[in-house]
Amino acid sequence: MDPMIRLILAQGMLGLNNGVFYAMLSLGLAVIFGLLNVVNFAHGALYMLGAFLALILYSNLGPWLGIDALHIGFWPALVLAPLMVAAFGMLIERFLLRRLYKLDPIYSLLLTFGITLVLQGVFINFFNASGTPYPGMPDSLKGVVNLGFMMFPKYRLFVIVFSIIVCFGTWFIIERTHIGARLRAGTENPELVKAFGINVPLMVMLTFGFGTGLAGLAGVLAAPIYSVSPLMGANLIIVIFAVVVIGGMGSILGAVVTGFSLGLIEGITKVFYAPASNTVIFLLMVIVLLVRPQGLFGKHG
Amino acid sequence: MKKAITASVSALAISLGAGAAMAQDAISDGVVKIGVLGDMSGVYSTGFSGKGAVDAVKMAVRDFGGTVLGKPIEVISADHQNKADVGSATARQWIDQDHVDMIADLTNSAVALAVQQLASEKHTLTFATGAATSALTGKECTNYGIHYGYDTHALPVGTATAVVKNGGDSWYFITADYAFGHALQDNTASVVETLGGSVVGSSDVPLATTDFSSYLLQAQSSGAKVIGLANAGQDTVNAIKQAHEFGIVEGGQQLAGMLVLISDVKSLGTDVAKGLQFTSGWYWNQDDASRKWKEEYEKFSGGEAPTFPHAADYSLTMAYLKAIEAAGTDDPDKVRAELGKMKIDDFFAKGGTIRPDGLLEHDMYLLKVKDGGTDPWDVADVVRTIPGNEAYASLADGGCPLVNN
What we know:
The complex is a heterodimer. By secondary structure, chain A is an all-alpha fold. Chain A contains eleven helices and two strands; from the N terminus they run H-H-H-H-E-E-H-H-H-H-H-H-H. Chain A has helices at residues 3-36, 43-65, 74-95, 105-126, 154-176, 178-188, 190-195, 200-222, 232-247, 252-272, 280-291; strands spanning 144-146, 151-153. In chain A, strands 1-2 form a two-stranded antiparallel ribbon. The longest helix of chain A has 34 residues, at 3-36. Chain A is globular. The termini of chain A are far apart. Chain B is globular, with a radius of gyration of 21 Å. By secondary structure, chain B is an alpha/beta fold. Chain B is built from 15 helices and 15 strands. Chain B has two domains: 30-150 and 287-363, Rossmann fold (3-Layer(aba) Sandwich); 154-280, Response regulator (Rossmann fold), CATH 3.40.50. The chains are: A mainly alpha, B alpha/beta. Chain A binds chain B through residues 3, 6-7, 10-11, 14, 17, 124, 128-131, 144, 150-153, 225-227, 229, 267, 270, 274-275, and chain B through 41-43, 45, 81, 203-204, 208, 210-211, 213-215, 217-218, 221, 234, 238, 245-248, 250-251.
C-alpha cells in the first residue's frame, strides 16, 4: 500500500478514536441543551468524574473498606460509574439548576461553570494534577488487531464500536420513540404536556441525568486510554462546545455526526501539517458560523 | 499552618536573639534556609522532584548534624506546577520575605531558567538538579546558578553514541515542546550527525501529553531506524508504552529514550523496557558507597529507592553546607567562591568540580536495562563510565558569556 494512503488511514483511525469522545460528550450536551435549554458547562467535569469513579472503584475502594483484594473492574465500572454520575447530575438538576429555569440561561451556565471549578479543585486536592494511569483494562481487550494498514489496540477498536452503538441508540430513542416524543413535547410546551398527566419536572430531571450519564460513560471509556486527571475534562470541553456549535445547538444527530467527522478531520490534518490540527476545528467553527449561523444540522437560527 | 506559625515564631525569636548578640552575623538571619522548589504533583514529581527530592535534602541536613556554624538549618519546599511564573513568584517571595538562602531542585528547564535568572539578580544561590537544559550554564549562565547532576549535552553523548554505533543511523525525534526538549533534541542531533547519522524529522509534543499515538505513527511512517524521545518523566513512560501498544517496536524501529530514570523503567516493567540504553548521572548499584547510601535513603524516606536527581539533591546540600563551613559565612559570594575551590568527592560525584560557569563536571554512566534482579530497583547494568570531560562541553564550548569575556 502507498505509505501516504496508509498514513492517512492510520491517522484517520486515531482521529475517529478521538471523535468518539467528541461525539459522546457533545451528544450529552445536545440532549441537555435541546430539551432543557441549559448550557451545561459542567459536562467536562462530569466526564472527568466518570473516569475518576472507574479509577476509584478499581484502586481506592478496596483499601478504604479495608479489603485490599477488592478491585471493581472495567465491566462493572462501565455500568456503575455512569449511573453514579447520572445520579449526581440529577441531584444538581433537582436542587440547583431547577431554581434557575425562570432566569436568563447565563445563570445556569455560570452555575455549571462553578460546579466544574469545585469538582476540579476537589480532585486536584486528593489526586495529583498530572494524572494517574487506569490499571484495570480487562485482559480480553488487551493486545492489538492488525488492520492491514496499521496495528490498532483492541481496546480502542472496542471503544469506537461501542460508542457508535450508544450514540445512534440515543438518537433513535429521542427522535424515533414515544418516550423521545414526550420529552420533546415536554420541553416545547410543558403546560400542555402536564395537562396530559405527564410529570414534566421528573422527566426533565431524568433527561439531565441521562445527559450527564453519557458524560460519565465517556469518562470510563477514556480512563484506560488517557491518564485519569482532574483537568482531562477542562482540556476537552472547549473542543466539545465547538463541535456543538458546528453541529447546531441542540441537534442530536448534528452532535454525533459532527463529533465523529471533526475527530476524523483533526486526525487527517496531522498527516499534512501537524501543528494545524489543534486549530482546524475552530477554523471550521468560524466558517460555519459565518455561512450558516444555526450550525450544519440546526433547525432554526 | 500551626507548624508554620511555630516555625516562623521560633525563627523570629532566634533572629531577634542573634541580632541582640551581635550586629554583624556570619549567618544572615541566624538560620540557613534551603528552599526545595520542584514539581510536586505533575509529570516530574516521581523520579525528579516530589517528596523524594525533599527527603534527600532533609536527609543531608540530618547527616550534616542539623546546624552549620552553630546555627540551625531549615528546609522548606513548594510546588512550581511546571509553570515558570509560579516558580518565579515563589522564588521571589522566598528570597524577599522568607529569607531563603539557597534554592534547590528546579526540575523543569523553563522554570529553572526563570528562577536562576531571578535569584541571581537577588544574589541568591540556585542548584538546579532535575532541570536538564545546558543553557543553564551556557548562554544563560549566572554568577550564582549551579547546575548539579547532568545536562542535555551529557545525556546523548552516552546514549546516542551507543545507538548510532549499533547501526541506528537515521533518527526521528519526539520532543517535549519547551526549552528542555528542544535543547535535548539539538544536542542529540549534533551527536548523531557528527557520527555520520541523519535526522529525518521531528514532532513537537506539549508537556504532559497522554496520547502519543499520532506522533508515533508519524515517526513510524518516516522510516527512521530510531525514534529518539527528547522528553522525560511520565511523557517518556507514556510514549514507550504506546509504541508497544501500536506495534512500532515489533515493526523493527528502535526507541531511544534520551532522558530515562530508573523509576521510569520500574513503572514500564523490565519486560517492556528490556535492552533500553540510557545515560544517568548516578546509579545506586554502581558501587558500595552508593548501595550503602541507597539503603540509608530508603530507611529515611520510607521505601522508595532514590533516582539520580535525588542523589544529586543530597550531594549538593552537603556541598553547600560544607562550603558555608569553609567560608565561615553564608554570604553567597563567599560560598560560591568556596564551591569553586572544593572537590566534590562523594558517593554521587567522583572528583567532580564546579566550574566558573556553574556546571558540576563529573562522570556519567551508560546503563542498559536487564532482567529484573532480586531487588525490584535492580533494573540495569552499567555498560560504560563516561568521563566528565568527555560527557560535558568544555568551558570554552559551553558558551557562558561570564567565562568567555
